[in-house]
Structure formats: structure tokens, C-alpha cells
Amino acid sequence: MPAVPLYAQLINLLAAVLLLLAFAMLSQRRVLSLIDLFAAQGAALALSTAIVAWATGQRHLYWSAGLTLGLKVLVLPWILRRLIHRLDIEWEFERLINIPTTMLIGIVLVVFAFNLAVPIAELANTVTRSTLGIALACVMLSFLMMITRRKAISQVLGFLAMENGLFFAATSATYGMPMVVELGIALDVLVGVLILGVFFFQIRDRLDSLGFANLERSRDDD
Amino acid sequence: MRADALPLLAAAIAAWLAIGALGLVRPLAFAFVSRLLFPLGALVALLVAGIALLATAEPVATLVLPLGLPDLPFHLRLDPLSAFFLALLGAATCAVSLFSTDYFRPSEGTAPGLVAFQYHVFVASMATVLIADDAYLFMVAWEAMALASYFLVITEHRIAAIRDAGFLYLFIAHIGAIAILLTFGVLQGGSGDYTFDGMRAARLQGAWPSLGFLLALVGFGAKAGLLPLHVWLPEAHPAAPSPVSALMSGVMLKTAIYALLRVTFDLLHAVVWWWGVVVLVVGLLTALFGVVFAAAQTDMKRLLAYSSMENIGIIAAGVGLAILFRAHDKTLLAAIALTAVLYHCLNHAMFKTLLFLATGAVLHATRERSLGRLGGLIRRMPWVAWLALVGTLAIAGLPPLNGFVSEWLLLQAFLFTPSLPQSFVNMLVPLAAGALVLAVALAAYVMVKFYGVVFLGRPRDPDLAHAHDAGRYERVALAGLAAACVLLGVLPTFVIGVIDRVNTMLVGAAVIRPGVSSWLLLAPIDAQRASYSPLVMLAVVVAVVVLAIQVVHRLYHGRVRTTGAWNCGSPEPTPRMQDSAEGFGQPIRQVFEPFFRMTRELPSAFDAEPRYRVTIDDPFRYWLYRPIARVMEKLAGYLGLIQHGRISAYLALSFATLIVLLFFVR
Q1: CA 20 to 30 Å from B159, out of A48, B290, B541, B552?
Q2: How far apart are CA B217 and CA B579, in angstroms?
């Protein structure tokens, strides 16, 4: 077995942690814990980006690591916790149907993602190419999470987790997107969360609940 | 003064932004905003005009500002072309800002501080467009300009019609912006270098230059108001407050012309002759369309907006001609056409700004925009009336004022076209020259209508007796613009001397050559063929007038008898018996009836209260915009079939699409 350098081992470890966290989010029912998991995912992402930056000497990756740390570990979880506190839904549970089935679908998706990543990983010449499959799997698992949830706030978390996966994919395939794109996406995410925060209040005021079931009546032709 | 012009101009732009930010600090402090911020803005504008005018003679200067995004700095560049347009912007903005000192009043709409903020951001972004030297900064400034002007248009946002006009403007501006973005995408030629220097170095092959040019024509044409993307123009100009209309018409439309010239003559390395034909035809159609519709209008600001279309059309025709000559390497003729273009840009900035500001003063004094209720204001508002007369004569193209010089130059350029190799272009040109003359003549007709109905005759409404003249600052602004109209008219060789620096840069020839033109005599080709001497013209006009007054005074002195005029047999003439705006425009409506979509409401002979109403609509809205909207609505209806209103269903749908696509792509 060829010797794997230390940084590559660390990155692989962090990639595995990311995947594990994605599965944890898929099965977590409490919203507050979901936010903790999301923050942990952000921290793992920031750490891995920093390690890639250190290993390859790509200066701009330090920027994106710092951005990830600030935005996804500190700012967004703080905003979301405050929202939950003000909406007074700290103790709400989500009635998830059939967690085992969801997990099974998740495993199928991971296999598919690894399969998908093989040709791309061969093209990429980065030290991190082996983690591309995990990154894609994270994106798909987060998507799956958005589909299975019924509450607005957990869907937002799914959306944010998907962005994490995307970020990881970009780092592992091409050492990150151009700085402009990264900044743009970061801003989009921040603004998106702020707007959604406003919408939470609106939805609750109108419908007395944050479940999306009520919104299904709002089609104008019904 | 040598190489410092560009940093100074950048500082001036920053100063405008700072003034705007001050407006945000105290948005409701009316006196603070109007008595301090707008005069400060005018001062900065004056400095910009002066610096830019001096900078036209300087060599090209560039500057890289470490602003914007990391690794993507702002590139600035000052060359004769941008300096010329900056001088235009500074001069017009100075007058408009000064006028705004008196103009904006506390009203139902946007807070005064906010208006000052939007106004200064608008001006600063227009100036930035002119000195941008990379596509990134250009687009940022271009969009800031569109947004700021949108918010200015909807200052009175409580009125639904004004919100609609603003939406239409924003919509067309977006279509234009997409085309411009694509233009830059084509121009960088696969190099990924979005600085203008990179685009100058790119050598596009095959159909790419033509594609880039056509996209630029669509994008900048949408902002300039060329057919068929003109629909926003007659809606947005009347909706905006008058100083804003003045800026939009006088300056913003010119930034589009600037950008078109920049792309065509500077960024693209060669021009193709048929581009010129396209621009020429579109320009002339726009000019004719604009002037015919202007003749039919009964709202004074709409009339001026359509007249702006006419002027932009004439300018575009000149651009087309310049392209045509440039493609055939007739540099002197190209320089003449380009001179006409730039001269007319400058002239239009002066007289249209003057007229829009004058309508603003009238609007304030009477709260009335409809020509049917104005009249006789020359007695109530002598300052505005006499100064507006200068603008009216200038826009009508009468010598010795400035409108004549540029239109004459353009006609001269047309008269020299028969030397072109394409025979069909040769056949087209006399037609085009005819159309140009028609447009110019009708413009004079329109201006007679505008001035005659608003300022002459008797007041059509008793309320007009309370009309008051413009304020002090307003008078200064109007007088400055009127003086500019006269000076630009009588000193053409000096103006063309400045414009020649742009000509030399863009087409490599100058119009003023020693031995052919002198300070007194302007001769584009040579003095035998055609020449114009405005000072002699002015002297003759003044001499004839003075002489006539003297002669009449001597011959008839003491033999004047004052008596009532013959009243056509009707004992009590009322103001309603005067020629009205509708009546004056009627012959034009009759002649050009197929152009219009007219709905008429005629009274019958037995009506107790007879009413006559004509509404004139833009045929493009019916034949072009409505069908597109209908098709889009239909397509959107099909999409509605998969709309369930359940978010998880949507997500599952997109997820499935993603998985399937990924499966096929791998």
C-alpha cells in the first residue's frame, strides 16, 4: 500500500466526518440538534479547506476557509437559533416517516454518487480528488433531506447543508471556485437566510404553523 | 494638470457619492438637502466639465483602482472620447443640479434626502460608465445608472401610472443589459480577459464581430430609445420629475451613444459596411417615428420625450454614416459624420435639458402638463418663456443657433456619399437624406406647436393667472443653458476643434484643417463646395432687424393708430377659439394616419355637452409587444400544469431530474 501523506489522510478523515454528519442530519428530528449538526459540518468543511490551502499553497483557499468558518459556523447558526427562540419552537419535533427507508435510499444515493465521481476524479489532478464522491453524496443527501422534511426551518437547513456539499465538491475537484463566485454564493446564502427568516414570521402569522402542509392550499386556482 | 485629470475625476465621482450619502443622513431635512446638497453637486459638476474639457487635449491616461473584488480591480481610462462626453455630462448636470435647488418640494412621494441620494448616485454612475475601462466596472456602473434612474422615475410612486411607467423602463433596461453582457462576452474573444485593453487586442474572426456589434446595437439601442425598444421612453420621461427627465434625456441617452461609439470604433478592430446601413436605417426610422408622434402629442413632456427619440434617431443616422465611411476608409468623411454626431449629442444635451427644465418650471407654476390648458404664459413667466424660446429655436435647427450647425454638418456628410462602391447604398442615401430633412423640418413644426401653445396666445385656463415665474436658481440654470445654445451655435470652429481630438482618435482624421477652415468660416470639405460662417450670419440677422426697426420707426412714426383688431364677426373672442394643440397637429395626424393607432370620439351634432377625444397609441405595442406577451402567457400556462403547490413535490421533481441527467451524463 503506497504511503498516503498526512494531509491527505486528514482530508479523507474530514470527508468521512462530513458524510457521517449528512446522515445524522437526515435522521435527526429535533431542530436545535439539526443546527448543531449543521455548524459541525461547517467546522469540518472549514478545517478541510484550510488543510487543502496549507498543503497546496493556494492563498485564496484561506479566504474561503475563513469565510466558511465565519458564515456557516458562527453567523448562520446564530441567526437560526435566534429565529427559533423568537418563534418559540425550540422543543418542536418533526414527525419523520420511516427513517430506515430514508437511510436506505441515502445509501443508494451514496453508491450512485461514488459511481458518478469516478470519471470526474480521474480528470481532476488535485490531491483531494478521492473525496469528490463524498462531496457529491453530501449534496444528494441534503437534497433528500429537503424532500423528506415538512417544516420550513429544516428545509432551510437542508438547503444550507447542500451548499456545504457543493463547496466541498468545488474544493476537492478544482481547489475551489474563483473567489468571485464564492463570495457571490456566500452572499446569496446569507441574504437567503435573512429573507427566509422574515418569511417564517409571515407564514406563522398567516397560518399559525410553520409546516408547509398549509401552504398547499395557496394555489390560486384551487 | 498634466496627468492628474483622471484621479481628479475619480475624486469628483466619489464626491458625488458622498453628497448623496449625506442626503441619507437627514432624509427629511428639506432645506439642508435643497439649499446645500444640490448646489454642492452643481459645483462638482462644473469642476468635472472644466477638467474634462481640458483633458480632451491630454494624452490617454489610465488608472487601476484596488476597489471591487479581490484580484479584480477597477480599470479607469480617460481618452478624448470619454473626456468629451464627461464635459457634456458635467455641463448639463451643473445646470440641472442648480435648477433642482429650487425645484424639489416636499411631496407625497420619495423623501427629499432620498431623492438627492438617488440623483447623485445616478450622476456618479453615468460618469463612471464614461471612464470605465473594463467590462466589469462598466456593467456595475451601467446597472447602477439604470437602477438609480428607475427609482428617480418613480419618485411619485403613489400614482399607479407612474409605477407602470417605471416597470416598463426597468424591464427594457434589463433586456438591454443582457444584450450588453453578451456583447462583452463576444468581444473578449475567448481570452477570458474582460478589460477593454484585452478586447482591443482580440482579433475576432468570421461572424463574431458582426454578432458583437448587433448585440451592442440592441443593448445600447434599448437605452438610447431606438426602434423597436423605444416604448419605455415616452412613458418614463413624463413620469419622472422634470430635472430627472432632463438628465435622462440630455445625458443618459448620450451614454448609450458613447458606449455604441466605444464598442464600434474602439473595441472592435474593424468595421463592416453593412453595420452602417443597419444603424442608418434604424436611426432614420426612429427619427421619423419620434417626430410624427411628437406632432400628435398633447402633453408637453411626452412631446419632448418623442422629440428626444427624433434627436437620438438623427444621431444614430450619423453614427451609421460614420461607420459606412470608416468601412471604406474615407476618413475625412467619417470624421465629418462623427463630428455631426458628437456635436448633435452636445447640442441635444443643452437644448433638451433647457426645454425639460422649462416644462418643469411651467409645471410648478401651473400644475398642468396638458397643452390644452396652457397658453399665454409669456406674460406670466417672461424669464422662462424667453429662455425657452432660445431652446425652441435651437432645437428647430434655425441658424445661428447650435442645432443648425450639427444638422447642417450631417447633411453635408450625406451629400458626399455618392462616392461609395455599393450601388444599392448609393441609391439608399438620397432617400435617407430626404427622410432626414423631413424629420428635421417636422421637428421645427413640432417646436412651433410646443412654444406657440404653451407660451403664446391667451391663457386657456383662468387658473393660469396665478402662474409665477421661475425662482432665482432656476433662472440661472436656464440662462446658462440658453447661453450655451448660442455659444455652441456661433463658435462652431472652436467646438469642432475639441471634437477633432475625438475624431483623430477614432477615425484618424480631423475636420478643421489649416487653410480650409478659419475661426470665422467653417468648411468641412473646402470653401468652394460649402461653408458656414455663423458670426457673419448673426451680424446680418442683427443688422437687418435693427435696420428694419429703425426704418419702420422713421417712416411710420406718429402715424400709428390704435384700434380693435378685426374680430371675424364674432363679438367676444374667447381663449377657446385659439388654435389648440390637437388642431395644430391635425394635418400631421391626417397625413401620417397609417402610422398611428388612433381612437376618436366625435361628438354628434345634437350633444348638449359635445366632447372630442383622440387617443393615439404606439402601434409597436400592439403589433410587437402584445403578441410576445400572449405567447409567453400561454407557455407559462403549460408550466402551470405541473404546479401542485407542494414544496416536497417540487423538490422531488428537481431531484429526480438531477439524478436522471447525472445518470446520462456520466
Answers
A1: B290
A2: 41
pLDDT in the model for residue B1: 44
For B524-633, list the strands marked E by DSSP: 597-601, 613-617
Residues of A in contact with B70 (CB under 8 A): 60, 63, 179
Q: DSSP secondary-structure letter at A30?
A: B
**Residues A99-131: pLDDT tens digits?**
788 888 888 888 888 888 777 767 766 666 667
Q: Which residue of A has its CA nearest to B651?
A: A147
Query: Which candidate from A149, A155, A215 shows the least CB-CB separation from B645?
Result: A215
Mean pLDDT of chain B: 85
Task: Say if the ipTM goes beyond 0.85.
Answer: no
Percent of chain B with pLDDT over 90: 26
pLDDT higher than 90, residue A210: no
Hey, is B325 helix, strand or coil? helix
Q: For residue range B273-304, what is the model confidence (pLDDT) as tens digits?
A: 889 889 999 999 999 999 988 888 888 889 99
Contact with chain B for residue A154, Cβ under 8 A: no
Dist CA B331 CA B325 (whole Å)? 7
Q: Domain limits of chain A?
A: 6-211
Q: At what angle do helices B273-296 and B581-591 cross, to 10 degrees?
A: 140
**Smallest Cβ distance to A147: which of B70, B71, B648?**
B648
Per residue in B312-336, is it b (16+ CB within 10 Å) or e — as a string? bbbbbbbbbbbbbbbbbebbbbbbb
What local confidence, expressed as pLDDT, does residue B170 receive? Answer: 93
For residue A1, what pLDDT is reported?
46
Which span out of A25-29, B370-374, B547-551 was modeled with the highest average pLDDT? B547-551
Cβ-based burial of B6 (10 A; exposed 0-12, middle 13-18, buried ≥19):
buried
Of A115, A116, A147, the CB nearest to B651: A147
B450 CB-near residues (< 8 Å, 6+ apart): B300, B303, B304, B355, B371, B392
pLDDT tens digits, one per residue of B312-345: 999 999 999 899 888 888 888 888 889 999 999 9
Query: Would the CB atoms of B646 and A143 count as touching at under 8 Å?
Result: no
Lowest mean pLDDT among A35-44, B164-173, B259-268, B589-598: B589-598
- Using a CB-CB cut-off of 8 Å, the residues of chain A touching B645 are 215-219, 222
Verify whether the Cβ–Cβ distance A180 to B72 is below 8 Å: yes
A contact test, residue of B653, B655, B657 with most A CBs within 10 A:
B655
Cα dihedral B504→B510→B512→B516 (10° resolution) = 150
Give the pLDDT score at B528. Answer: 65
A positions 186-215 inside 8 Å of B (CB): 212, 215
CA distance B601 to chain A (A): 39
Spell out the domain ranges in chain B. Answer: 292-298+316-553, 619-665
Report the 10 Å Cβ neighbour count for B612: 10
Nearest to A212 among B640, B643, B647 (CB): B647
Facing A147 at nearest CB: one of B645, B652, B663: B652
